[in-house]
Request: fold
Amino acid sequence: EAGVTQFPSHSVIEKGQTVTLRCDPISGHDNLYWYRRVMGKEIKFLLHFVKESKQDESGMPNNRFLAERTGGTYSTLKVQPAELEDSGVYFCASSQPTTEQFFGPGTRLTVL
Amino acid sequence: LAKTTQPISMDSYEGQEVNITCSHNNIATNDYITWYQQFPSQGPRFIIQGYKTKVTNEVASLFIPADRKSSTLSLPRVSLSDTAVYYCLVGNSGGYQKVTFGTGTKLQVIP
Reply:
């Protein structure tokens, strides 16, 4: 069974540009989460989807971040415009209602 | 979500048993204790979860005392490939609850 996949694995952009990260959860997993780790800090929760609906977006840092999950399948996280402090590793995880979360390998974002 | 405290780092020789203890004084009645492992350049990976007493799987054992204010992850006979960061998390069981990561314990296995 394929795990959680994320694309791209690395992204380097300039301040002010837009970047879109993609996450493909494990097939059949209704729950999808986004997390991120900025340099030297702990992994922090960003938001949680149940199917296509946002269940909890309390961790989204500001309105430059937009997450979507079209049709309850894959999800995208767009940062527009990107700032230097957005640099870090963005993780996606998915789960079934009563199982642990399965994490993807992460996308390393560098904003110059 | 209950805050957790665990050692920043630990060293162990190959073949030894490693015990990593996590404190979670404010654990709630319906909270479970979950441990994740993370290798460099990878996402965290679930190791084990428990509520009380002892849980064992093919990878590790988890010991939880009666007051549940702490827990100990036990890795038997570690190898170099067990070098990783280990996170202790406390929260509702299942995948519907966001997880909160602390600093984790960086385990270095020495040949």
